[in-house]
Amino acid sequence: MDIFLITLLIISCLNMYSCGSSSDLPGNITKCDIADEKCLLDGMNYVINNFATTGIKELGLVKLDPLHIKKFSLAKNPNSPVSIDMTFTNAELVGLRGSQVKRTSIFTRDLRRPIAFEMFSPKLTLKGPYSIDGKVLILPIVGKGDAEISLDNVKVSAIAKFVPVSKGPQQTYAKAIEVKIKLEPSRATYKLNNLFNGQKDLSDNLHVLINENWREVFGELQPDIFGAMGLIFKSVLNKALSKYPLEQLFSGL
After folding, report:
1. Where are the extended beta strands (E) located within 167-201?
2. Do you find a cis peptide bond into 66, omega within 30 degrees of 0?
3. 21 CB contacts (<8 Å, ≥6 apart)?
């Protein structure tokens, strides 16, 4: 779900804002030196604060809040006490505009070093049409309707690996080949409408169970959630990175 984040993976590679030389990038964005960690950190937060709700079309940066997610799926794990088939379609991840990047590692010219990020989000919510079937702890669960899964006070950690793609002299593009995301919320809240075909007593009991045991439920779903969010943000990130070569995004190359 959430997850993501995560999220600034995109932003991080556009590293814009101050501390750099002027450039012809849109959005009044200036280049950072590729090894200037403070500039990169300031640049990510500048983009979140100013462009999260609009995106930057010229840079291939999609709107981050809400972030549209066409499909998000979790698969059953028969060995887990939380074994569900759950799918969101045309969902939205809301809350990234309130996020703040706390730490980032720097890029290297050959891109061999993975880039690590840490971000804090006061609240992230995944909402949209869902379907679910399976079991949660001791109870069966089935439903189809609208859902909201909210995470409070989320620490988002991400590691992205890149490779350079040369398209000619001074035309080196970065391609993300792997994005790993981890979410650590202080609380998760689940709201699933129309469980058990609208049977209120069953729905109420299930909601009490999963919300009182949110940590166990979230813990069991983590591998699938983190993997799905990593794939989502790798796709978004590569769309942004395909617009400009590194030589145009950074100074010092």
Report:
1. 172-184, 187-192
2. yes
3. 30, 31, 251
Tell which residue, 159, 44, 19, 62, has the closest CA to residue 102: 44
Over residues 214-248, the pLDDT tens digits come to 999 998 888 888 888 888 888 888 887 888 888 88
157-180 pLDDT tens trace: 999 999 999 988 888 898 999 999
Distance, in Å, from the CA atom of 166 to the CA atom of 91, rounded to the nearest integer, reads: 35
Which tokens belong to 25? 């990038």
* pLDDT at 17 exceeding the cut of 60: no
List, for residues 103-133, the tens digit of each pLDDT value: 988 777 778 889 898 999 999 999 999 999 9
Are the C-beta atoms of residues 17 and 43 closer than 8 Å to each other? yes
Does residue 33 contact residue 97 with C-beta atoms inside 8 Å?
no
C-beta of residue 177 within 8 angstroms of C-beta of residue 111: no
Contact indicator for 26, 47 with CB cutoff of 8 Å = no
Q: How far apart are CA 221 and CA 150, in angstroms?
A: 14
Burial of 229 (0-12, 13-18, 19+ CB in 10 A): buried
